[in-house]
Amino acid sequence: xxxxxxxxxxxxxxxxxxxxxxxxxxxxxxxxxxxxxxxxxxxxxxxxxxxxxxxxxxxxxxxxxxxxxxxxxxxxxxxxxxxxxxxxxxxxxxx
Length: 95
Fold this sequence. Notes:
By secondary structure, the chain is an all-alpha fold. Helices cover 93% and strands 0% of the residues. It has one domain. Helix 1 packs antiparallel against helix 2. The protein starts with a helix and ends with a helix.
């Protein structure tokens, strides 16, 4: 085998390595995008739960029975705001 043939073989093997690396990057990008979408799905219920818990703790501390409702509303509003913000960011990066 001549030096020219060996050089061509090396270039072909490097090209196939680059192609497989590109496929790995595409797969990783798919996982990153899926993680972003899952984060959006979890932010709203988590915010509502945190708002309810904070309201319930304030209810116990202040001996009332209505602050948990305010906590639920603030949690829902904050979760919705954050979910929309993340969805807009995810949509902007795809373009």
